[in-house]
């Protein structure tokens, strides 16, 4: 089943159940908390916070999401994209736990002939919050899931809140068992690669105070109107229904890998290190195009810096795969063809998207050329200082300068060093990076606190029942700066 059909079936299912279909919001919303929209509920926050009256009691959407915090996982795990599509259903003080569980269960287990996804119910596992026996009871009652396939988790994994006093509630996650060839027995608690998380249900029922139930503190009250917020990963459903090993091989990403094979002359599925690069290219090319479409330009901080990093990683991955020539235009072209059916702006705005992406590629290729000159000089110096018969070593400080001043990524330095018969003091490099990361974190923290626009929370604060303190995306941003 193609991704397009998976989306359509989700929306149809919930529209039939009385939900209003709401289009995806832009990836860029004016939210002081977030670099990018990272979940379906973000555009509905004012309803959940009681700041606005929802125009409908129930809604469904497929939201564009970007999670920079998952960047290190890309290509390494089988299930993390930086851009993905989160399908969701939402109840604003309307239906609650039992219906949320029933709606999800019906869609995933109904046969494909009848409009569902047709998953074998015997392979579905669920988790529930340890202090939410009601959810487990409902999974037994509504879905007939036996106790052996219901696992409990603590607040860190299965409690949701916004990081600030306000609404919160237990979650229940739905997993599909891909089988013993994918990992250990024992359910999602034991292995999240074998047991693939496909859907997260949030039962917004509590008011949390200063201290989060995530960390074991009890909520301070009960919400007068209970809400439902769910998120299902479209790419993960596609992975399962298309019978492929990972999200990068699904129908909207694999053709980018095919294009990368043509451009680099190397094949996917031969060397693990190459495969990771192919997947990084597929993932990042799509994310970059979607970000540019929503108005992000490469830059030196914030959103622009994330985009710059993504585009540069594409160039460097392609180069490590052996591409000598520019690649970006080709990648943008294939992404546009794949995504335009759901996101027409990728086609109508293609010329601009291509210009922005190619501009960054050109600039980075220049940087690499300059860095290569410094690299060659360094090699000469190291060789001259190394007694014959010994292997010379590029210092951590030189590797760091190449990275920091010339934007020369460490894996490129390592590869070129090994071609020149040298090693690199990687540990020294990493410790200099760690110091820099620490500084970036402190800067980001200072910046966030300096620029946060607190006005949207003012009303709540005025009511005296909340206070704005949390910055969920902070760690993600600091990580991506590395
Ligand atoms: P994981 O534990 O696998 O990182 P999560 O618990 O962080 O996922 P949620 O925040 O619950 O994910 O998001 C709801 C759903 O969105 C998930 O159940 C999953 O299907 C999907 N999803 C989350 N992160 C990603 C991602 N990086 N790439 C693709 N799909 C994702
Ligand atoms: Mg995650
Ligand atoms: Mg999870
Ligand atoms: Mg989850």
Automatic annotation (TrEMBL):
Give the UniProt keywords, A-Z: Aminoacyl-tRNA synthetase, ATP-binding, Cytoplasm, Ligase, Metal-binding, Nucleotide-binding, Protein biosynthesis, RNA-binding, tRNA-binding, Zinc
Main location class:
cytoplasm
Documented EC number(s):
6.1.1.7
- Reactions catalysed, as given in the entry: tRNA(Ala) + L-alanine + ATP = L-alanyl-tRNA(Ala) + AMP + diphosphate
GO cellular component terms, alphabetically, are: cytosol
Decide whether keyword Disulfide bond is in the record: no
Cofactor(s) recorded in Swiss-Prot or TrEMBL: Zn(2+)
Similarity comment text for this entry: Belongs to the class-II aminoacyl-tRNA synthetase family.
Q: What does the entry's domain section say?
A: Consists of three domains; the N-terminal catalytic domain, the editing domain and the C-terminal C-Ala domain. The editing domain removes incorrectly charged amino acids, while the C-Ala domain, along with tRNA(Ala), serves as a bridge to cooperatively bring together the editing and aminoacylation centers thus stimulating deacylation of misacylated tRNAs.
Q: Under what name is this protein listed?
A: Alanine--tRNA ligase
Q: Which residues of the full protein are shown?
A: 1 to 482 of 892
